[in-house]
Design brief:
Structural class of chain A: alpha/beta
Order of helices and strands of chain A: HHHHEHEHEHEEHEHEHEHEEHEE
Oligomer: homodimer
CATH topology of the largest domain in chain A: Rossmann fold
Radius of gyration of chain A: 26 Å
Strand order of the largest sheet of chain A: 2-1-3-4-5-11
Strand content of chain A: 5-15%
Number of strands of chain A: 12
CATH superfamily of the largest domain in chain A: Response regulator
Number of helices of chain A: 12
Chain lengths: 350, 350
DNA sequence: GCTCGATCTGGAATCGATCCCAGAGCGTCC
DNA sequence: GGACGCTCTGGGATCGATTCCAGATCGAGC
């Protein structure tokens, strides 16, 4: 879309129906072809005629029909975005980054969220195909969706997690490195019973965070205890319950590494409920920063994925793919910073 | 879109280009008209032929082009949504509610955020017009955008706030009643110096919250002190600064009513920085709930607007408007609950 | 004067789907 | 047997824009 200068959006003078290019052409006393050339700037038009047509369009409040234009040109200027849950700040930030960046490039964003349902995910993908979007950015739930979109020749960028590595472009954070870094930090403070609370280990996110956690132990020459790796469930309620079970007992871990912000919230709530002080009784680190982590006392040390930047990088990668369809698939890996706050300390010397 | 049964999304067998209805028609050995009738279910088709066409579509992985369909039918099955800032959980929840509800009705959602810029808002509106969306749901920044969309005969629903009352449909919360309720609560606990920290007083949100605050004083027969109504700025940094100024002094208020979640965060941070204990030294209530408010100790008492429900109500209103274009404009008012937490107490007896 | 190229314009085809309408086939009823 | 109604199919117009192409006009150069 050509960005009209401020204040130039014309006043449609009470049209019974929307103005079409035919109306503009008639008003300017030229043919539809000429009107089109004048407005798009492609092809010859005499300057005087061009101005006349533009004025007419202006007066009529003409806005070209994107459907018709896209149909004719067989390209669309919108992208599809599919995330898991907008109420989770991680996905909201991601969408925000994508939105800003794609607007800057003149593309509109179709946003859908599958509420964790593979069927909803495929339905959204089908809608994107129907709308002939220029590309899709998604946080995949299944490998099928990428394959489906690929079959329809729609460029796909997987963000945050990947299914089949190398099957399509992807933008992810270096989960392993970041997980290893925070785990090593806990070990260096003297913790030995460090639990990992995790939601899944099938996607690259969970898998790599687990790998990072383990390699920190190996690097420190410390033994691994698989009983300390615990599945935490998908929502705060479940996570809180699991965390209570984990923390309620004599043999409890002295530190917990929560693999995402929902699980961290569960641990925090469980600690509160059990009267455990952070960090005196329990150290906590989180993968995924969240707004509340800077509000509580002490603040929660977290791997701060910049979700907005992740979204922006995904958009950049998508346009590179569109301009360059043949180039080999690429996985962009962003590093994540660790925001040190007050939620870790040496373990209690019980 | 007809929801295909799971697993029925056909395999496009390596098409050089996407299958069109012409391809389906040829594969099923019928005309394009018949293929169309078979797939849409409108008009006569012999059952045997219908099945043959559907199988052909299946085999080819045919997905009808929404552009072409919309162009022909002059209606679209997508709605435009325009919010201020997705990173704010209020707007993200709103979008989430809209998304879920519109997906349920088979509509796609075009989402844009103006980053507080009126120009970006108008640009997004123009995109919505170009895409011929069925309707637009927005949290308006300017009166102009609603008027612009209205001129192009696009149904508009304003959510959260209204500009010209009655100019279009709207879904809002009862700001006045909720503000009055929480203010009255503070007065009943004995507070007299109750500050209102507010961002704007031009929109209905700010105006009504101010009105509610004032009428609580009037109802209690207490005098108003306009020096206690303070503008707090638009982001957390500014809000924190203003709150520090407000709370740093001998004559500081004993309670603060923050008119939104960003301002409440500013007050919370300022109180922390100044070493003020909540609620012993300072009571705090917020308009707008936010996730962190249940995470901190004590929890922050807040007017809990259900933003998801707000979004869902907006979608419902939009479809009512679409089905019933002539009916008088309607403003739906949702009441907001007050989530009582621990952030208020009787004022210090200094 | 004639050719050639550049500039400029309008007619008509095109994108992919829907839908009106004419007409074929067939059964029923008077 | 003929009129009528119902079922079913295909031809072709249509939505709104873009774009190819033919042709008109004009000025310059030989």
């Amino acid at each position: 879309m050509e960005a009209a200068a401020p204040g130039t959006r014309g006043a449609a003078t009470a049209p019974g129906r929307r103005a079409t290019i035919k109306d503009v052409a008639e008003a300017a006393d030229v043919s539809r072809s000429t009107a089109s050339r004048a407005l798009t700037g492609r092809g010859y038009v005499a300057p005087a005629v061009r101005d006349r047509v533009r004025r007419a369009a202006q007066t009529l409040g003409y806005v070209p029909d994107a459907m018709a234009r896209n149909l004719r040109q067989q390209v669309s200027r919108s992208i599809g975005v599919l995330v898991s849950d907008l109420r989770n700040s991680f996905y909201a930030d991601l969408a925000s980054g994508i939105s800003g960046q794609s607007r800057r490039r003149g593309y509109a964003m179709m946003l859908a969220d599958d509420a964790g349902s593979v069927e909803a995910e495929l339905e959204a993908a089908e809608t994107f195909v129907a709308l002939r979007v220029a590309g899709v950015i998604l946080t995949p739930l299944s490998a099928e969706v990428t394959e489906y979109l690929g079959r329809h020749r729609i460029p796909v960028i997987e963000v945050d997690r990947q299914f089949a590595e190398g099957a399509c472009d992807a933008v992810v954070v270096d989960n392993k490195a970041a997980a290893e870094r925070v785990t090593t930090g806990l070990l260096q403070q003297g913790h030995r019973r460090v639990a990992l609370l995790i939601d899944e280990m099938d996607w690259t996110t969970g898998r790599d965070r687990l790998v990072g956690y383990r390699s920190a132990f190996l690097a420190a020459g410390l033994p691994l205890d698989d009983a300390l790796v615990v599945r935490g469930g998908w929502d705060v309620g479940a996570a809180t319950g699991v965390a209570r079970g984990l923390l309620d007992g004599p043999d409890r871990p002295t530190a917990v590494f929560a693999a995402n912000n929902v699980l961290a919230e569960g641990v925090w709530r469980a600690a509160q409920a059990l009267g455990l002080r952070v960090p005196e009784d329990l150290s906590l680190v989180s993968f995924d920063d969240a707004p509340w982590m800077t509000m509580v006392t002490p603040g929660v040390t977290a791997v701060a994925q910049d979700a907005v930047a992740l979204g922006e990088a995904a958009v950049a990668q998508m346009f590179e793919r569109i301009e360059n369809p043949g180039s080999p698939k690429r996985t962009v890996m962003l590093s994540a910073a660790v925001a040190q706050r007050g939620s870790t300390a040496a373990p209690p010397t019980a």
